[in-house]
Amino acid sequence: MNLLSAKKQIIENTDPDRVYVENIRSFFNINSKIAQKLCNVAVKRGFFDKYVEVRCPNDDSTIYSSESFEEIPSQIICQNCQLNEEDNYQFDKKDLKANTFYRLSNKYRNEKVSI
Ligand SMILES: [Zn+2]
Fold first, then answer.
1. Domain ranges of the chain
2. Residues 6 or more apart from 55 whose CB is under 8 A from it?
3. What's the 42 CA to ligand 1 centre distance in angstroms?
4. Distance 16 CA to ligand 1 centre (A)
5. 83 alpha carbon to ligand 1 midpoint, in Å?
6. β-pairing verdict for 75-77 and 90-92
7. How far is the CA of 109 from the centre of ligand 1 (A)?
8. What pLDDT, on the 0 to 100 scale, is given for residue 115?
9. What spacing in Å lies between the alpha carbon of 24 and ligand 1's midpoint?
10. What is the pTM of this model?
11. Residue 47, SS3?
């Protein structure tokens, strides 16, 4: 497997702005540990940019994403829940689960896919 074929599969199969280790794992039918390693290599080579997101505990929507967990504010509002007038729409960062995801870097995105 090389990065070009990985890129083609990612573009065809998922949102290149939001790639999870689980996507990589299932595309290539590999275990999570290897999928994580592959993502780390892709970040090192500039193929992926790494991000972290936190999700609303009520509706599971992504309420904040950033290049690092530290940059996420300590209080986060879920606009969906606020619009829906839920009692609880403001959350403490420390109570939320953070997920890592990857974004296909602009450099690779703008190149033509050639296999
Ligand atoms: Zn919400």
1. 3-104
2. 61, 62, 63, 96, 97, 99
3. 32
4. 24
5. 9
6. antiparallel
7. 31
8. 42
9. 27
10. 0.80
11. coil
